[in-house]
Design goal:
By secondary structure, the protein is mostly helical. The protein has eight helices and no strands.
């Protein structure tokens, strides 16, 4: 009777082992399915991000470094022999491409004062100019660019001084330059006594570099 009992014992111990192996296979298969599902989900997300990146970059640029009227900027830069990124940077510093009227009465994208525009109109021969024209981006950018060219010529091409005068006034900058000369050196950004103008110059020169880098094709660099 012993052999049959021994055989029964072997069958009893083998069944749990087979069940454990089957359960392990099921768990392994379930893990593989989860990994495949997760990998598939990651792939879908990666593709979606790749497709969305150009739109995301454009949205970020619109929020952090907006650009509009690029064709007008390029044209005025060519007409006035200016760096288009400088025009864009001045617009950014003045209005961030959101045209408005300031508390001082400056108008449009480049915040041109009516009296400044009238002076520039007489100087450039714009006999039909009216203040209302400054609401038009093409006119506003044309006058702002003409003024930048005037300031650059006045300061022999020095962009820092021209930008300072655009914000702080030509007479003030001339006075600061004269004061620096009496001390035996040229005016530096750090010596600009108006905090607003000093910050304005730093912002414009930084944004000029940013526009040249981020909008190379739009502004005609490449």
């Amino acid at each position: 009777m012993t052999p049959p009992a021994a055989a029964t014992s072997r069958r009893d111990t083998s069944r749990p082992e087979a069940s454990r192996r089957a359960a392990a296979r099921r768990r392994s298969a379930a893990r593989r399915r989860r990994v495949l599902r997760f990998s598939g989900a990651l792939l879908v997300v990666a593709v979606a991000i790749g497709l969305a990146m150009p739109l995301l970059r454009e949205a970020v640029n619109d929020l952090t470094l907006p650009l509009a009227d690029a064709s007008i900027i390029r044209q005025q830069a060519a007409d006035e022999h200016l760096d288009p990124a400088l025009i864009a940077a001045v617009i950014y510093a003045e209005t961030k491409f959101d045209a408005r009227t300031s508390s001082a009465g400056a108008l449009g994208l480049m915040q041109i004062l009516p009296q400044t525009a009238e002076y520039l109109a007489r100087r450039s021969g714009g006999t039909t100019f009216t203040t209302a024209d400054l609401a038009e981006p093409s006119v506003n950018i044309a006058y702002g660019s003409y003024y930048l060219r005037y300031l650059l010529d006045h300061y022999h091409g020095n962009e820092m001084l021209a930008v300072a005068a655009y914000n702080g006034g030509l007479a003030n900058v001339d006075r600061w330059i004269a004061q620096a000369r009496t001390q035996g050196h040229a005016l530096t950004i750090d010596e600009i006594p108006f905090p607003e103008t000093r910050a304005y110059v730093e912002r414009v020169l930084q944004k000029q570099r940013d526009y040249r880098h981020q909008y190379a094709s739009e502004l005609g660099y490449g």
